[in-house]
């Protein structure tokens, strides 16, 4: 069987479209926000997602595939952006749990887009610990079915998109698991300019967090999480300095924008994604999927062939002690 080498399974319930996204059905006009009305509505059924790990963690061979009860799915293309029919709850793919350092990301270039560890000059990337921040200070991940278009000049930043799904920073109290799919609501966004590219960071909270009912917009973050917005901007500004790079820049002088603004950014990125998957040739990016019923969709035989190219799961390789090193930067 395809998945008999699964070594570890993470289960959690989300709402997922079972077959195909239908881009011709708009959200109901009863939604109060005009931005919500521009994000397309899917049909949903209850579905659980799991992970299948391949290779050894902390090595170049390590991959995390996402699957549901029907088999492997692409976290870039198959998991719906919306988590329910309200249009206000979104699916988030967790790439990096809070307090960890491994720079994990959806591999947009590989078929079925497994989560892998980013590399630099052939070596695995770990985010430095810049005092007082240990690793990532949020659960970090991405919105499925979004894409920051590298061919379009962003009107807010004056820079083109970074060619990736939208990044998401989840601020709830639980430390999430790699590959977990969280249901989140949008609170705001920060416009990072990373090496000349637009790289929006969308702030969200897990809808199951006990404080979530009280946190609905950017102003609520400062009220209930005092200091977190300031720390977020600082972290994004300085995290590459230990690697010899300059401070990152921001649009709006680093001022976070509110939820309504962020929803417009998400809507635009979803529209860009829809254009991407409709292309005959997406160049470097893989649009291979198992649910969209388009020219890039594949069946079980091809899924098995892709998985067979990966090594079986094995125990993690030990981390180098340098991963825990503190870096001190004077701003």
TrEMBL record:
GO terms for cellular component: cytoplasm. The keyword Magnesium applies. Its EC number is 3.6.1.1. Keywords: Cytoplasm, Hydrolase, Magnesium, Metal-binding. Its cofactor is Mg(2+). The keyword Hydrolase applies. SUPFAM superfamilies: Inorganic pyrophosphatase. InterPro entries: Pyrophosphatase, Pyrophosphatase_sf. It comes from the Eukaryota. One of its GO terms (biological process) is phosphate-containing compound metabolic process. One of its GO terms (molecular function) is magnesium ion binding. It is an enzyme of class 3 (hydrolase). Belongs to the PPase family. This is Inorganic pyrophosphatase. It comes from Sipha flava (yellow sugarcane aphid). The gene is Nurf-38.
């Amino acid at each position: 069987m395809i998945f008999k080498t699964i070594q570890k399974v993470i289960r959690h319930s989300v709402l997922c479209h079972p077959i195909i996204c239908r881009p011709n059905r708009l959200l109901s006009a009863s939604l109060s926000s005009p931005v919500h009305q521009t994000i397309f509505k899917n049909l949903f059924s209850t579905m659980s997602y799991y992970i299948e790990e391949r290779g050894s963690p902390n090595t170049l061979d390590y991959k995390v595939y996402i699957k549901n009860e029907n088999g492997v799915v692409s976290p870039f293309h198959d998991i719906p952006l919306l988590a329910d029919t309200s249009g206000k709850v979104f699916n988030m793919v967790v790439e990096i749990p809070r307090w960890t350092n491994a720079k994990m990301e959806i591999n947009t270039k590989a078929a079925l887009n497994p989560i892998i560890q980013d590399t630099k000059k052939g070596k695995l990337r770990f985010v430095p610990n810049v005092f007082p921040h240990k690793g990532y200070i949020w659960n970090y991940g991405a919105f499925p079915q979004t894409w920051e278009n590298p061919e379009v000049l962003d009107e807010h930043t004056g820079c083109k998109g970074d060619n990736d799904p939208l990044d998401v920073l989840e601020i709830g109290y639980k430390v999430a698991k790699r590959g977990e799919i969280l249901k989140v609501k949008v609170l705001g966004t920060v416009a990072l300019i990373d090496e000349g590219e637009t790289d929006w960071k969308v702030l969200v909270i897990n809808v199951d967090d006990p404080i979530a009912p009280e946190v609905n917009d950017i102003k609520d973050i400062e009220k209930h999480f005092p200091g977190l917005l300031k720390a977020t901007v600082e972290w994004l500004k300085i995290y590459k300095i230990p690697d010899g790079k300059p401070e990152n820049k921001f649009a709006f002088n680093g001022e976070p924008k509110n939820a309504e603004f962020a929803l417009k950014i998400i809507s635009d990125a979803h529209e860009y994604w829809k254009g991407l998957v409709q292309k005959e040739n997406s160049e470097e990016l893989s649009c291979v999927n198992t649910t969209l019923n388009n020219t890039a969709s594949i069946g079980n035989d091809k899924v098995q062939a892709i998985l067979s190219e990966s090594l079986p799961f094995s125990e993690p390789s030990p981390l180098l002690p340098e991963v825990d090193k503190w870096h001190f930067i004077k701003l």
